């Protein structure tokens, strides 16, 4: 039983972390709402159970040993997860609504959010959709680290500890200002935009994406690449005529529909990217495959993807 494997309890982790944060047993005891004598007892009890020293005194200051630092590091990582779990448990008890946190990435235009939120609210057990910004990491990392239950991610990433559902296939297009000379071109090649300022999420070529799949085979490279880690900022910069970018078609669909941008196919045939839902196994079991397929279909429809269905 995993709950009987640990020699020390959560209260021991808390007091060690508090000592690291305060450098004082008195202040540490106050921060976890126990007396100083109780804090002293907890430290000694943890050291006795583990058979190692966790704390050492330097003058009037307490410092953690390397072993104590390892305990504090674990406590620091676990504390937010436990707090979120308690908050979600209380909310479920009071409202009966389940929260589903979906992580998204930098190339996601989020046009799928309203229809998916509506779909989840109509499930037999109403589900509250929360969005988690994956930042510079792949969104699936947010799932693996317990920050989300599900991630919508473009590309072929896969993890054996997550359930993966196919959503559909997107196509990379070149985004231009509506008055750009190439906006009506049937297709755009690497040489035609080589002298333009090029807006990219990353300066490092990613497998299957434009720097690796479009420019490199032609032996070309944009003359000037500006790293912009915000999709909305990229769309605004391109719309203002300050440069060009290559993005999934879905990322700019709304802006193109409002005639704020032009989207032109890439020469040499389409570069298609798959979208996947990465789901924690317990979440997949709780929702069921049918519900996940409905979510995947709703996303696929909202993003106008070439559909794909089922577990990958």
Please render the helix and strand layout as text.
Blueprint: H1 10-22, H2 25-31, H3 36-50, E1 55-58, E2 61-64, H4 66-95, E3 98-104, H5 113-121, E4 127-133, H6 139-144, E5 150-154, E6 163-176, E7 197-200, H7 210-215, E8 224-227, H8 231-239, E9 245-248, H9 253-257, E10 262-265, E11 272-279, H10 281-287, H11 289-302, E12 306-307
Parallel strand pairs: 3-4, 3-5, 7-8
Antiparallel strand pairs: 1-2, 5-11, 6-9, 6-10, 6-11, 6-12
How would you describe the overall organization of this protein?
This protein is of the alpha/beta class and 312 residues long. It is built from eleven helices and twelve strands. It has helices at 10-22, 25-31, 36-50, 66-95, 113-121, 139-144, 210-215, 231-239, 253-257, 281-287, 289-302, and strands spanning 55-58, 61-64, 98-104, 127-133, 150-154, 163-176, 197-200, 224-227, 245-248, 262-265, 272-279, 306-307. The strands form three sheets. Strands 3, 4, 5, 6, 9, 10, 11 and 12 form an eight-stranded mixed sheet that branches. Strands 1-2 form a two-stranded antiparallel ribbon. A two-stranded parallel ribbon has the order 7-8. A hairpin with a 2-residue loop joins β1 and β2 (61-64). α1 crosses α2 (25-31). It starts with 9 loop residues before the first helix and ends in a 5-residue tail after the last strand. The mean pLDDT is 86.
Question: Can you give keywords for this protein?
Answer:
8-stranded mixed sheet; 12 strands; elongated; alpha/beta; two-stranded antiparallel sheet
The number of distinct helices, counting runs of at least 4 residues, comes to 11
List segments where confidence is low: pLDDT < 50 over at least 5 consecutive residues: none
Q: What is the distance, rounded to the nearest whole angstrom, between the alpha carbons of the first and last residues?
A: 32 Å
Mean pLDDT across the residues is: 86
Count the strands? Answer: 12
- The radius of gyration is 25 Å
SSE pattern, N- to C-terminal? HHHEEHEHEHEEEHEHEHEEHHE
- Structural class estimated from helices and strands: alpha/beta
- Categorize the overall geometry: elongated
Instruction: Give the fraction of residues assigned to helices.
Output: 25-40%
